[in-house]
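Issue: ligand-bound run for zinc ion - logging full I/O for the record.

Environment: standard queue, default settings, no custom constraints.

Inputs:
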Amino acid sequence: MASLTFLGAAGTVTGSQYLLEVDHHRILIDCGMFQGLKPLRLRNWAKLPVHPGSVQSVVLTHAHLDHTGLLPRLVSNGFGGRAFCTAGTADLCKLVLPDAARLQEEDARRANQGRYAKHTPALPLFTENDAAEALSRLQPFGFNRPAPVAPGIEAEFINAGHLLGSAYVRVRRSNATGGTLLFGGDLGRYSRPVLPDPSPGVACDVLLVESTYGDREHPPEDHGAELARIVRETADRKGKLIIPSFSIGRVEEVLYWLKKLEDEQAIPVLPVYVDSPMAVQALEYYRRHAAELDPDARPARGEVCAFCTERFSPVGSARESQQVVDAKGPSIVISASGMAVGGRVLHHLAAGLPDPKNTVLFVGFQAAGTRGRDLIEGAHQVKMFGQWVPVHARIEKLNAMSAHADAGEVIRWLRTFPKAPGITYLVHGEPPAQVALKARIERELGWNVHIPEYLEKVDVAL
Ligand SMILES: [Zn+2]
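Outputs:
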């Protein structure tokens, strides 16, 4: 018998981490950071229920921080093994883990400058050195090939279509005796550009599946019509279109649509700047791994890049970035961070928000307490660099872009399984979404579904 302990993403959407114990071996599936409200973030400091040095290996489903962000800490606390992942995940980890370390170190420094930190100096969750050490442990492995993650135990990555390199993971014994576990990771969407559809499900006894949008359906696809309208209206006003965007994944989708709309002559050809070093590097990784992407994201014959619009410019140095900030005339600027909490996009917003010719377009979820949320809720001014900036630019939001399957798409994926798993655990979701999805799976598929609690430990057949 083996056991599975839900160390995160239980009743919440972050902190994905599951401890599999089998034959005295310990394997962690995902090693994600908790994000969001403080009680959740405090869990990042919690001790593992077992010593990190006793963990044989880690298996990462994809590079998002809520699935990988605690790996540097695990390593600094004594984990000595390898972290298996796909090549795409390994590449994207080279961007996200050092970046997360820098933010941790900055936060700690800032806290130590405050008056409360005198007696208990704030520490970063992990440092850039820890992140570098974690990167050295990554063991890239191809899709659809069994990786030996512990003696007699293998894990196989199957493309999940959620992010470059993203996978769901099948774990079973190398000698094919015993049961099969399927760790769903995050599930992508159907018929979307850039990423392929999620691969069909495979027979398993235990399934973990995400429930982020378990009570919601995404708006229907408009084939870029709304984006085209926003680009045209901004160009007609001779304004700039500023798009705060997450550096990885979303930038590719925005560029895909801009290029398509240009090709269809649905929008004028404008200079398009990608002003985020991380986004530019991620774009390069997407190009390098184009064979794993949706066919529509592979360059057409004679093209260098499926994401490069006619007048596409990656922005490098801070000086070049300032030149784009100062430039007049219609253009499109895509820059991070996606919720306008930091990064180069702040300079574009500080210069662009006071001008009614401009448009700021949000393309992702805006969490409470962020500038992005304030802006979409109609703030007349926002504080940036210590000053109030008046908001006269037009503020727009596109809801259609999401990397996570909605409830209907989860059900659609579950219908591709050759048979019902013995048990399906709903993870990576807030309770209302989980309750709704559980009821729907039971009603529509008749499957056995359980919603695990944080730190719950269950027996699994393996
Ligand atoms: Zn994800």
